[in-house]
Amino acid sequence: MAKRKLKKFAEVSSFDNCFFLSFEQSREEGLPLKGKWNKEFFKNDNPIVLELGCGKGEYTVGLAKRYPNKNFIGVDIKG
Ligand SMILES: C[S@@+](CC[C@H](N)C(=O)[O-])C[C@H]1O[C@@H](n2cnc3c(N)ncnc32)[C@H](O)[C@@H]1O
């Protein structure tokens, strides 16, 4: 993997609100927060909005700032 990509992964891994899961991991262990996002991560009962293919998440973060009464999850296949 290119140095720049490794550096980016290392940086993003340090964020509290970012998770990395390989396909193998999800197949073998399941999705750790499945059905438990509000109880274990957001710690509230707000409705969840899921953005698939969120890229770097700028749009997701923008929406989250605009709608603080909803819980936003962004998913992307790339780091
Ligand atoms: C055109 S970009 C949009 C990025 C973002 N939504 C935005 O508006 O800035 C599409 C994104 O979809 C992601 N993507 C494509 N196939 C995917 C898949 N199967 N699962 C998750 N993300 C995927 C790509 O990695 C890419 O970041």
Architecture overview:
The protein is of the alpha+beta class and about 80 residues long. It has one domain. It is built from 4 helices and 2 strands; from the N terminus they run αααβαβ. It has helices at about 5-15, 25-30, 35-40, 60-65; strands at about 50, 70-75. A two-stranded parallel sheet has the order 1-2. Helix 4 (about 60-65) links the parallel strand 1 and strand 2. The two termini are about 10 Å apart. About 5% of the residues are buried. S-adenosylmethionine (SAM) binds near residues 55, 58 and 77.
Features:
alpha+beta; 79 residues; binds S-adenosylmethionine; 42% helix
Overall form? globular
Calculate Rg over CA atoms.
14 Å
Major sheet? 2 strands, parallel
* Spans of at least 5 consecutive residues with low confidence: none
Q: Give the H and E element order.
A: HHHEHE
Count of individual beta strands: 2
The chain-level mean pLDDT equals 91
Bound molecules: S-adenosylmethionine
Count of the separate structural domains: 1
Percent of sequence in beta strands:
5-15%
Structural class: alpha+beta
Order of neighbouring strands in the sheet with most strands: 1-2
| Total of helices | 4
User: What share of the residues lie within helices?
Assistant: 40-55%
What's the gist of this structure?
The protein has 79 residues and is α+β, with helices and mostly antiparallel strands. The chain has four helices and two strands, in the order αααβαβ. It has a two-stranded parallel sheet.
